[in-house]
Amino acid sequence: MTTGEPVRRGAGSAQQTVRRHNLALVLREIAEGEPVSRAGVAQRTGLTRGTVSSLVEELIADGLVTELAVARGTTGRPASPLQLNRSGPAGLGIEIGVDEVGVCVVDLSGTVRAQRSAASDHRTREPAVGLDRAAALAAEVVAEAGLPVEGAGVALPGVVGRDGVLQRAPNLPRWVDVAVDAELAARLGLPVDVGNEADLAAAAELWFDGGPPDFVHVSGGIGVGAGIVLGGELFRGPGGRAGELGHVVVDPDGPACSCGGRGCLEQLAGQRALLELTGARDVEALLRDPGRATAVAGRALGVALAGVVNLVDVPTVVLGGLYARLGEPLAAAVTAELRSRVPSRPEVTVRLSEPDAGGALRAAAALVVRRRLRRP
Amino acid sequence: MTTGEPVRRGAGSAQQTVRRHNLALVLREIAEGEPVSRAGVAQRTGLTRGTVSSLVEELIADGLVTELAVARGTTGRPASPLQLNRSGPAGLGIEIGVDEVGVCVVDLSGTVRAQRSAASDHRTREPAVGLDRAAALAAEVVAEAGLPVEGAGVALPGVVGRDGVLQRAPNLPRWVDVAVDAELAARLGLPVDVGNEADLAAAAELWFDGGPPDFVHVSGGIGVGAGIVLGGELFRGPGGRAGELGHVVVDPDGPACSCGGRGCLEQLAGQRALLELTGARDVEALLRDPGRATAVAGRALGVALAGVVNLVDVPTVVLGGLYARLGEPLAAAVTAELRSRVPSRPEVTVRLSEPDAGGALRAAAALVVRRRLRRP
User: Fold this and answer.
1) What is chain B's alpha carbon radius of gyration, rounded to the nearest angstrom?
2) pLDDT at B10
3) Which of A127, B15, B80, B367 is the most buried (most CB within 10 A)?
4) Interface predicted TM-score (ipTM) of this complex, two decimals
């Protein structure tokens, strides 16, 4: 059964399956086309108006869809356009960074309705301290949003197993095999999903900024990671750990890395390396005089990304995090390095991530509502 | 309709579709289980014995399947085991190397039935000269095999577009935008399929040596390439050019490469680089005293493969071509380098390609018979 087609026949329990399938189909049409009339949904799905009306009633009763008020004075029967319910089920997002924690709530449409961040040193303290801090901040933000939050998505700066366990995070040596999903579920009283920060940042680009079907999104920060999107889907690799761009070797004899390797991209173009290189006290200072950081990061990123282009054949590079803040000069430096490294691929483009896309934090929260929309 | 399940219902032209589907299903069971009885096929497919018998008759009439002679003296009704017809439709394989051409014919079971190679300098001569040479050698090998060859598959040392055109081959500067498929089809009078040598070498590992579902196969020669297999399928990337391991940067300030880049793996660990490094006259001489070549290639391969492990997350590396001939000491050197570069993935294994798998040439020929088996 393809998910894009309506299903009409069925009996007994099969009929229930059919109804669930069509419910999801109608909800997807409303999500993608809102505001849209029942007639519009019927036309696009191929379902009868009667079926659509019945399914829409169910979606309204479940709080997933609302009818917009129709302007008075329209002639004929009002069309009552439908849209996703902004007061319906919502998602909580949590991002555990190296030295901060971010929290947000998104509504069913993926719009951020409340958001806060706070300093929180996860390098030296026990994971439990950081998790307590995250849960406390989350409670505040959930209260502020005033929406029925149904679950949480968490972005983590490390390797996340398919079982929801943070296996390791090179920049957080104390966070080894931490069951972040279970730990936060217990603190929040909500079901919790976890994902890698770089993967979720790439997903944000795809979901909220109309990203192209094939690209690599590079997250620059204390850690450097990448999310690879192929065919409009996150490419996670056989073990779920693909896209570890920060540990691609750029200088085989370079400085030792927290991963145990040497000369990794992160050691040359990560936030700490660039601060050290320029003597800037913090990122704000770095951005006031970014010339040298841009040149050095541009070259290192170009070398590492030449590997991505050669191995995975992506046509688009999106620079995010600190790299987006370094802006067009960095994109130009990376482009120049890529051109000289892979002259056979002049079509590869490098662009900056759209800050409004919301990054990994928003995508983490959106995991919750996107799942709800897929299975109403 | 999943391809793994029998389909029973249907009427009119739908019935024909069902029959074709079940024909392919029965043929696949015979190919995978040969020798196998009709009853065995019925049991494994869930089709009735009557249906299986009827389909088998059609496969026998088409020359795809034969009955094995049954030993006399068995009691009861003989089971007449079935197998693929070794005299049935066959495939021609052609491999255009940098300085040689190889040709083989495989039967329906993928077994090589005739094979030859010849020196043929494709670096300095016009492509047409090489294509003539390949076609002439192919005619000899086809005559020797004495099988009904239905088509040809061609392995090429460069970038092959989805349209069958060799776009470029870094080591064959005269071969730019050559429609190898059309050129050889005209010379051979056969339909022709083309593919990248490294991709086909990986396919050989998968098809003929029971390769694991996820691995990268590295082809060492004058050119260095890789075929990446994920989930039992060749991973070609959005543009069909994934796996260009030879041009991953290993030494950013290293020697200029034929690709226009600098310090690519091929410049450090390709056949020419290793001959130059050791002063050996040819590969045979190199293999008599391989110590220095093994150390240098092992380090360079380890650095480049650290990128593959980090970006694509493959758990297995298979070394082929010249690298397989350098043997276990090279595998050990690559393993040691990978361990130091990516200490977080101690499970990654490095092994040698099985020469009996037959490599890219056999896989190219097998393209033909595998297609025939999928669509009987």
Assistant:
1) 23
2) 46
3) B367
4) 0.85
The pLDDT value given to residue B239: 86
- In which residue ranges of chain B is CATH 1.10.10.10 found? 13-84
- According to DSSP, the residues that pair with A83 across neighbouring strands are A66
**Two structure tokens written together for A189:** 């009283």
pLDDT in tens, A352-367: 998 766 789 999 999 9
Give B259's contacts (C-beta < 8 A, 6+ positions apart).
A342, A343, A344, B170, B247, B266
Q: Which pLDDT value is given to residue A10?
A: 46
pLDDT surpassing 80 at residue B235: yes
CB contacts under 8 A, A 160-179 vs B, are: 168
Closest-CA distance, B263 to chain A, in angstroms, reads 9
Architecture of domain A90-200+359-374: 2-Layer Sandwich (3.30)
Name the one residue in this structure whose structure tokens are 């301290």.
Answer: A129
Among B253, B312, B345, most A C-beta atoms within 10 A, so best to mutate, is B312
* pLDDT, chain B, mean: 91
Q: How far apart are CA A185 and CA A126, in angstroms?
A: 18
* pLDDT the model gives residue A2: 40
3-state secondary structure of A163: coil
Band (B79; pLDDT cuts 50, 70, 90):
low
Task: Compute the nearest-CA separation of A338 from chain B (Å).
Answer: 9
Does B346 reach chain A within 8 Å, measured CB to CB? no
Four-way CATH pick for B210-353: 3.30.450.20, 3.40.50.2000, 3.30.420.40, 3.40.50.1950: 3.30.420.40
CATH topology of domain A13-84: Arc Repressor Mutant, subunit A (1.10.10)
